[in-house]
Design brief:
Pfam family, one: MMR_HSR1
Strand content: 15-25%
Number of helices: 7
Radius of gyration: 26 Å
Protein name: GTP-binding protein 10
CATH architecture of the largest domain: 3-Layer(aba) Sandwich
Largest sheet: 7 strands, mixed
Number of strands: 15
Keywords: GTP-binding, Nucleotide-binding
Order of helices and strands: EEEHEEEEEEEHEEHEHEHEHH
GO molecular function: GTP binding; GTPase activity
InterPro entries: G_OBG (IPR031167), GTP-bd (IPR006073), GTP1_OBG_dom (IPR006169), GTP1_OBG_dom_sf (IPR036726), OBG_GTPase (IPR045086), P-loop_NTPase (IPR027417), Small_GTP-bd (IPR005225)
CATH superfamily of the largest domain: P-loop containing nucleotide triphosphate hydrolases
Protein backbone atom coordinates (compact mmCIF):
# COMPACT_ATOMS: atom_id res chain seq x y z
CA UNK A 1 0.00 0.00 0.00
CA UNK A 2 1.22 3.48 -0.83
CA UNK A 3 0.58 5.88 2.03
CA UNK A 4 1.31 9.13 0.25
CA UNK A 5 -1.64 10.62 -1.62
CA UNK A 6 -0.87 14.29 -1.78
CA UNK A 7 1.75 16.72 -0.64
CA UNK A 8 1.63 20.34 0.34
CA UNK A 9 4.08 23.21 0.47
CA UNK A 10 4.25 24.49 4.03
CA UNK A 11 6.58 27.41 3.76
CA UNK A 12 9.15 28.85 1.41
CA UNK A 13 11.46 31.41 2.91
CA UNK A 14 12.39 34.51 0.98
CA UNK A 15 15.91 35.42 -0.04
CA UNK A 16 15.96 37.72 3.00
CA UNK A 17 15.73 34.79 5.36
CA UNK A 18 16.70 35.87 8.88
CA UNK A 19 17.67 33.25 11.46
CA UNK A 20 19.33 35.50 14.03
CA UNK A 21 18.06 38.81 15.39
CA UNK A 22 19.48 41.12 18.04
CA UNK A 23 16.92 42.97 20.17
CA UNK A 24 16.98 45.28 23.19
CA UNK A 25 14.59 44.74 26.11
CA UNK A 26 14.08 46.89 29.17
CA UNK A 27 11.82 46.47 32.16
CA UNK A 28 9.76 49.45 33.20
CA UNK A 29 11.09 51.93 35.74
CA UNK A 30 9.38 51.91 39.13
CA UNK A 31 7.13 54.76 40.22
CA UNK A 32 8.17 57.44 42.70
CA UNK A 33 7.31 56.99 46.37
CA UNK A 34 5.64 59.68 48.49
CA UNK A 35 7.96 60.60 51.41
CA UNK A 36 5.45 62.73 53.32
CA UNK A 37 2.94 59.90 53.68
CA UNK A 38 5.20 56.87 53.23
CA UNK A 39 3.62 55.98 49.89
CA UNK A 40 5.17 53.27 47.73
CA UNK A 41 5.52 53.64 43.97
CA UNK A 42 4.31 50.96 41.60
CA UNK A 43 6.68 48.37 40.21
CA UNK A 44 7.75 48.64 36.57
CA UNK A 45 6.40 46.11 34.09
CA UNK A 46 8.33 43.02 32.99
CA UNK A 47 9.22 41.89 29.47
CA UNK A 48 8.35 38.36 28.37
CA UNK A 49 8.97 36.43 25.17
CA UNK A 50 6.16 34.04 24.25
CA UNK A 51 5.83 31.45 21.50
CA UNK A 52 3.46 31.95 18.60
CA UNK A 53 2.26 29.48 15.97
CA UNK A 54 1.37 32.24 13.53
CA UNK A 55 2.95 31.04 10.23
CA UNK A 56 3.39 34.66 9.15
CA UNK A 57 5.50 35.50 12.19
CA UNK A 58 9.22 35.19 11.42
CA UNK A 59 12.34 36.97 12.58
CA UNK A 60 12.23 38.81 9.26
CA UNK A 61 8.69 40.06 9.94
CA UNK A 62 9.71 41.10 13.47
CA UNK A 63 12.65 43.03 12.05
CA UNK A 64 10.37 44.80 9.58
CA UNK A 65 7.63 45.54 12.12
CA UNK A 66 9.99 46.76 14.84
CA UNK A 67 12.90 48.42 13.01
CA UNK A 68 14.35 49.77 16.29
CA UNK A 69 14.11 46.27 17.80
CA UNK A 70 13.46 47.76 21.24
CA UNK A 71 10.85 46.44 23.66
CA UNK A 72 10.24 48.50 26.82
CA UNK A 73 7.63 47.77 29.49
CA UNK A 74 5.50 50.45 31.14
CA UNK A 75 6.64 52.54 34.10
CA UNK A 76 5.03 52.01 37.49
CA UNK A 77 2.70 54.76 38.67
CA UNK A 78 3.81 57.27 41.28
CA UNK A 79 2.41 57.19 44.79
CA UNK A 80 -0.21 59.91 45.36
CA UNK A 81 -2.23 61.19 48.30
CA UNK A 82 -5.35 59.45 47.06
CA UNK A 83 -3.45 56.32 46.00
CA UNK A 84 -0.51 55.71 48.30
CA UNK A 85 0.33 52.41 46.60
CA UNK A 86 1.06 53.20 42.99
CA UNK A 87 -0.18 50.76 40.36
CA UNK A 88 2.35 48.47 38.74
CA UNK A 89 3.33 49.15 35.15
CA UNK A 90 1.93 46.84 32.48
CA UNK A 91 4.18 43.99 31.40
CA UNK A 92 4.64 43.37 27.68
CA UNK A 93 4.56 40.01 25.94
CA UNK A 94 6.59 39.86 22.75
CA UNK A 95 5.50 37.10 20.39
CA UNK A 96 8.31 35.21 18.68
CA UNK A 97 8.28 32.28 16.24
CA UNK A 98 8.74 28.75 17.52
CA UNK A 99 12.23 27.30 17.44
CA UNK A 100 13.90 30.30 19.09
CA UNK A 101 16.88 30.06 21.42
CA UNK A 102 17.23 33.20 23.56
CA UNK A 103 20.85 34.20 24.22
CA UNK A 104 22.21 37.00 26.41
CA UNK A 105 24.38 39.14 24.12
CA UNK A 106 26.63 40.21 27.02
CA UNK A 107 27.88 36.77 28.03
CA UNK A 108 26.45 34.53 25.26
CA UNK A 109 24.68 32.34 27.81
CA UNK A 110 21.45 30.65 26.81
CA UNK A 111 18.50 32.08 28.73
CA UNK A 112 15.95 29.63 27.41
CA UNK A 113 14.23 28.14 24.37
CA UNK A 114 10.79 28.59 22.89
CA UNK A 115 9.62 25.51 21.03
CA UNK A 116 5.86 25.50 21.66
CA UNK A 117 3.14 28.10 21.97
CA UNK A 118 2.84 27.65 25.74
CA UNK A 119 6.49 28.59 26.31
CA UNK A 120 7.10 31.93 28.04
CA UNK A 121 10.43 33.39 29.17
CA UNK A 122 10.92 36.35 31.50
CA UNK A 123 13.81 38.26 29.90
CA UNK A 124 13.72 41.60 31.74
CA UNK A 125 12.37 42.52 35.19
CA UNK A 126 10.78 45.83 36.01
CA UNK A 127 12.31 48.14 38.62
CA UNK A 128 10.94 48.43 42.16
CA UNK A 129 8.89 51.44 43.09
CA UNK A 130 10.20 54.08 45.48
CA UNK A 131 9.84 53.22 49.17
CA UNK A 132 11.33 54.08 52.53
CA UNK A 133 14.33 51.74 52.10
CA UNK A 134 15.25 53.44 48.81
CA UNK A 135 14.62 56.98 50.03
CA UNK A 136 11.38 56.76 47.99
CA UNK A 137 13.38 56.75 44.78
CA UNK A 138 12.42 54.18 42.14
CA UNK A 139 14.73 51.62 40.56
CA UNK A 140 15.34 51.33 36.85
CA UNK A 141 14.17 48.22 35.03
CA UNK A 142 16.61 45.58 33.86
CA UNK A 143 18.23 46.33 30.50
CA UNK A 144 19.46 43.55 28.23
CA UNK A 145 20.55 42.95 24.68
CA UNK A 146 19.44 39.57 23.42
CA UNK A 147 19.99 37.35 20.41
CA UNK A 148 17.01 35.45 19.07
CA UNK A 149 18.58 32.46 17.35
CA UNK A 150 16.22 30.46 15.15
CA UNK A 151 16.64 26.73 14.65
CA UNK A 152 14.01 25.34 12.33
CA UNK A 153 11.60 22.84 13.80
CA UNK A 154 11.13 20.04 11.28
CA UNK A 155 10.73 16.27 11.43
CA UNK A 156 13.31 15.48 8.75
CA UNK A 157 16.47 17.39 7.86
CA UNK A 158 18.20 16.95 4.49
CA UNK A 159 22.00 16.66 4.65
CA UNK A 160 24.24 16.77 1.59
CA UNK A 161 26.73 18.65 -0.51
CA UNK A 162 25.63 21.10 -3.22
CA UNK A 163 24.04 19.66 -6.36
CA UNK A 164 23.26 16.31 -4.72
CA UNK A 165 19.61 16.71 -5.69
CA UNK A 166 18.14 17.76 -2.33
CA UNK A 167 15.97 20.51 -3.81
CA UNK A 168 14.68 18.20 -6.54
CA UNK A 169 13.89 15.57 -3.92
CA UNK A 170 12.04 18.11 -1.78
CA UNK A 171 9.94 19.12 -4.77
CA UNK A 172 9.31 15.45 -5.57
CA UNK A 173 8.15 14.63 -2.03
CA UNK A 174 6.30 17.82 -1.17
CA UNK A 175 5.46 19.71 -4.37
CA UNK A 176 7.59 22.57 -3.11
CA UNK A 177 9.07 24.86 -5.74
CA UNK A 178 12.73 25.34 -4.86
CA UNK A 179 15.12 26.63 -7.47
CA UNK A 180 16.61 23.64 -9.26
CA UNK A 181 19.53 23.67 -11.70
CA UNK A 182 22.59 21.61 -12.59
CA UNK A 183 25.03 23.80 -10.68
CA UNK A 184 25.86 24.04 -6.96
CA UNK A 185 24.22 26.36 -4.42
CA UNK A 186 20.82 26.70 -6.09
CA UNK A 187 19.38 26.52 -2.56
CA UNK A 188 20.60 29.58 -0.67
CA UNK A 189 18.01 29.67 2.10
CA UNK A 190 16.33 26.87 4.11
CA UNK A 191 13.04 25.64 2.71
CA UNK A 192 10.32 23.64 4.43
CA UNK A 193 8.03 21.15 2.69
CA UNK A 194 5.10 19.22 4.13
CA UNK A 195 4.07 15.64 3.36
CA UNK A 196 0.44 14.78 4.12
CA UNK A 197 -0.62 11.13 4.34
CA UNK A 198 -4.11 9.63 3.79
CA UNK A 199 -4.83 9.68 7.55
CA UNK A 200 -3.93 13.41 7.62
CA UNK A 201 -0.60 12.75 9.33
CA UNK A 202 1.80 15.53 8.40
CA UNK A 203 5.59 15.38 8.35
CA UNK A 204 7.81 18.40 7.76
CA UNK A 205 10.92 18.23 5.59
CA UNK A 206 13.72 20.81 5.82
CA UNK A 207 15.96 21.32 2.80
CA UNK A 208 19.09 23.19 3.85
CA UNK A 209 21.67 24.82 1.57
CA UNK A 210 24.42 22.41 0.57
CA UNK A 211 27.42 22.11 2.85
CA UNK A 212 31.00 22.55 1.71
CA UNK A 213 34.15 20.89 2.99
CA UNK A 214 35.16 22.84 6.07
CA UNK A 215 31.62 23.64 7.18
CA UNK A 216 32.82 22.93 10.72
CA UNK A 217 34.94 26.10 10.35
CA UNK A 218 31.82 27.96 9.20
CA UNK A 219 32.96 27.92 5.58
CA UNK A 220 30.01 28.64 3.33
CA UNK A 221 28.06 29.72 6.44
CA UNK A 222 28.22 26.10 7.56
CA UNK A 223 27.28 26.80 11.19
CA UNK A 224 24.17 28.77 10.26
CA UNK A 225 22.97 25.82 8.16
CA UNK A 226 24.00 22.95 10.44
CA UNK A 227 22.19 24.42 13.43
CA UNK A 228 18.86 23.89 11.67
CA UNK A 229 19.15 20.10 11.86
CA UNK A 230 19.66 20.05 15.64
CA UNK A 231 15.92 19.84 16.34
CA UNK A 232 15.04 17.37 13.59
CA UNK A 233 13.93 13.86 14.51
CA UNK A 234 15.45 12.17 11.47
CA UNK A 235 18.36 12.96 9.15
CA UNK A 236 18.08 12.19 5.44
CA UNK A 237 21.47 12.07 3.73
CA UNK A 238 21.30 12.71 -0.01
CA UNK A 239 24.33 11.85 -2.15
CA UNK A 240 25.03 11.68 -5.87
CA UNK A 241 25.83 8.08 -6.81
CA UNK A 242 28.38 9.36 -9.31
CA UNK A 243 30.22 11.53 -6.78
CA UNK A 244 30.68 15.25 -6.37
CA UNK A 245 33.16 17.97 -7.26
CA UNK A 246 32.39 21.52 -6.18
CA UNK A 247 34.66 23.12 -8.78
CA UNK A 248 37.78 22.32 -10.85
CA UNK A 249 39.83 23.60 -7.92
CA UNK A 250 38.35 21.03 -5.56
CA UNK A 251 39.08 17.32 -5.39
CA UNK A 252 36.52 14.88 -6.78
CA UNK A 253 34.78 12.77 -4.13
CA UNK A 254 33.03 9.50 -4.82
CA UNK A 255 29.82 8.61 -2.98
CA UNK A 256 31.57 6.82 -0.11
CA UNK A 257 34.01 9.67 0.46
CA UNK A 258 31.09 12.09 0.35
CA UNK A 259 29.36 10.17 3.14
CA UNK A 260 32.53 10.14 5.19
CA UNK A 261 33.01 13.88 4.79
CA UNK A 262 29.40 14.65 5.67
CA UNK A 263 29.70 12.50 8.79
CA UNK A 264 32.86 14.32 9.84
CA UNK A 265 31.28 17.74 9.32
CA UNK A 266 28.35 16.80 11.56
CA UNK A 267 30.62 15.20 14.14
CA UNK A 268 32.89 18.23 14.40
CA UNK A 269 29.96 20.62 14.62
CA UNK A 270 28.03 18.61 17.22
CA UNK A 271 28.86 14.97 17.91
CA UNK A 272 25.38 14.30 19.31
CA UNK A 273 24.00 14.64 15.77
CA UNK A 274 25.53 11.24 14.98
CA UNK A 275 23.11 9.62 17.43
CA UNK A 276 20.09 10.76 15.44
CA UNK A 277 18.36 8.11 13.31
CA UNK A 278 19.23 8.55 9.66
CA UNK A 279 18.36 7.31 6.19
CA UNK A 280 20.49 7.43 3.06
CA UNK A 281 19.05 8.38 -0.32
CA UNK A 282 21.46 7.55 -3.15
CA UNK A 283 20.31 9.87 -5.92
CA UNK A 284 20.56 9.98 -9.74
CA UNK A 285 20.04 6.25 -10.19
CA UNK A 286 18.41 6.94 -13.56
CA UNK A 287 21.78 7.80 -15.14
CA UNK A 288 23.72 5.18 -17.14
CA UNK A 289 26.08 2.98 -15.14
CA UNK A 290 24.42 3.79 -11.82
CA UNK A 291 23.51 0.21 -10.89
CA UNK A 292 27.11 -1.03 -10.96
CA UNK A 293 28.39 1.92 -8.93
CA UNK A 294 25.54 1.51 -6.44
CA UNK A 295 26.36 -2.16 -5.89
CA UNK A 296 29.99 -1.23 -5.20
CA UNK A 297 28.83 1.42 -2.69
CA UNK A 298 26.59 -1.08 -0.89
CA UNK A 299 29.45 -3.58 -0.67
CA UNK A 300 31.72 -0.93 0.83
CA UNK A 301 29.10 0.17 3.36
CA UNK A 302 28.42 -3.39 4.47
CA UNK A 303 32.09 -4.05 5.22
CA UNK A 304 32.81 -0.56 6.49
CA UNK A 305 35.27 -0.47 9.41
CA UNK A 306 36.23 3.20 9.39
CA UNK A 307 39.65 2.63 7.78
CA UNK A 308 39.39 4.76 4.64
CA UNK A 309 41.88 7.60 4.62
CA UNK A 310 41.04 11.01 3.15
CA UNK A 311 44.42 12.77 3.00
CA UNK A 312 42.97 16.00 1.63
CA UNK A 313 40.36 16.42 4.35
CA UNK A 314 40.94 19.90 5.91
CA UNK A 315 43.40 19.15 8.73
CA UNK A 316 42.65 22.40 10.52
CA UNK A 317 39.09 21.16 10.77
CA UNK A 318 40.09 17.69 11.93
CA UNK A 319 42.94 17.70 14.46
CA UNK A 320 43.03 13.93 14.87
CA UNK A 321 44.15 11.17 12.54
CA UNK A 322 41.81 10.88 9.55
CA UNK A 323 42.11 7.10 9.76
CA UNK A 324 39.55 7.22 12.58
CA UNK A 325 36.85 8.70 10.35
CA UNK A 326 33.38 7.26 10.73
CA UNK A 327 30.31 6.91 8.57
CA UNK A 328 26.79 7.42 9.80
CA UNK A 329 24.93 4.24 10.68
CA UNK A 330 21.90 4.34 8.41
CA UNK A 331 18.61 2.65 9.19
CA UNK A 332 18.18 1.91 5.49
CA UNK A 333 19.58 2.87 2.09
CA UNK A 334 17.31 3.87 -0.80
CA UNK A 335 18.40 4.03 -4.44
CA UNK A 336 16.33 6.86 -5.88
CA UNK A 337 15.98 9.29 -8.72
CA UNK A 338 14.54 12.58 -7.54
CA UNK A 339 14.18 13.56 -11.19
CA UNK A 340 12.04 10.59 -12.29
CA UNK A 341 10.53 9.55 -8.95
CA UNK A 342 12.27 6.17 -8.64
CA UNK A 343 12.14 5.03 -5.00
CA UNK A 344 10.34 8.14 -3.71
CA UNK A 345 7.24 6.34 -2.44
CA UNK A 346 9.28 3.70 -0.61
CA UNK A 347 11.36 6.47 0.96
CA UNK A 348 8.28 8.41 2.05
CA UNK A 349 6.75 5.31 3.63
CA UNK A 350 9.92 4.57 5.59
CA UNK A 351 10.16 8.18 6.79
CA UNK A 352 6.63 7.85 8.18
CA UNK A 353 7.48 4.59 9.96
CA UNK A 354 10.55 6.00 11.68
CA UNK A 355 8.95 9.29 12.70
CA UNK A 356 5.86 7.55 14.09
CA UNK A 357 7.99 5.00 15.92
CA UNK A 358 10.02 7.75 17.54
CA UNK A 359 6.88 9.63 18.56
CA UNK A 360 5.37 6.48 20.11
CA UNK A 361 8.59 5.58 21.92
CA UNK A 362 9.06 9.10 23.27
CA UNK A 363 5.59 9.00 24.80
CA UNK A 364 5.57 5.45 26.19
CA UNK A 365 9.18 4.44 26.81
CA UNK A 366 10.79 7.48 28.43
CA UNK A 367 13.84 6.76 30.54
CA UNK A 368 14.94 3.68 28.60
CA UNK A 369 18.20 5.32 27.55
CA UNK A 370 17.31 5.39 23.85
CA UNK A 371 17.83 9.04 22.93
CA UNK A 372 16.51 8.58 19.43
CA UNK A 373 13.31 6.83 20.38
CA UNK A 374 14.12 4.10 17.82
CA UNK A 375 15.32 0.69 18.86
CA UNK A 376 18.79 -0.27 17.72
CA UNK A 377 17.44 -3.68 16.72
CA UNK A 378 15.42 -1.92 14.06
CA UNK A 379 18.50 -1.15 11.94
CA UNK A 380 18.33 -3.11 8.72
CA UNK A 381 21.30 -4.81 7.13
CA UNK A 382 22.11 -2.96 3.93
CA UNK A 383 21.37 -4.98 0.84
CA UNK A 384 21.25 -4.13 -2.81
CA UNK A 385 17.67 -3.66 -3.95
CA UNK A 386 18.62 -1.50 -6.88
CA UNK A 387 17.27 -3.87 -9.50
CA UNK A 388 13.72 -3.87 -8.18
CA UNK A 389 13.80 -0.13 -7.63
CA UNK A 390 15.29 1.04 -10.88
CA UNK A 391 13.85 -1.34 -13.42
Amino acid sequence: MVFLTRTLLLRKYSKEFVDKLRIHVRGGTGGNGLPTLGGVGGRGGDVYLVGSQDPKLTLKSMKDRYPMKRFVADTGQNSRKNALSGLNGASIYVQVPLGITVIDAANHKVIGEISKKTDKILVSRGGRGGMRSTMFRPKYGQRRNLYLDLKLIADVGFVGFPNAGKSTLLSRLSNASPKVASYPFTTITPQIGLIQYPDFRKIQLADLPGLVEGACLNKGRGHSFLKHIERTKLLLFVVDIHGFQLSPKHQFRDALETLQLLTEELKLYDETLLSKPSLLAVNKMDLPGSEKVYQELIDELNKWEGKIILPSFPKICHPIDTESNEIMKFKEVFPISAQTGIGSQELTTRIRELIDNRTFTSKHMLGTGDNNGISSTETKHITSNVSSSVH
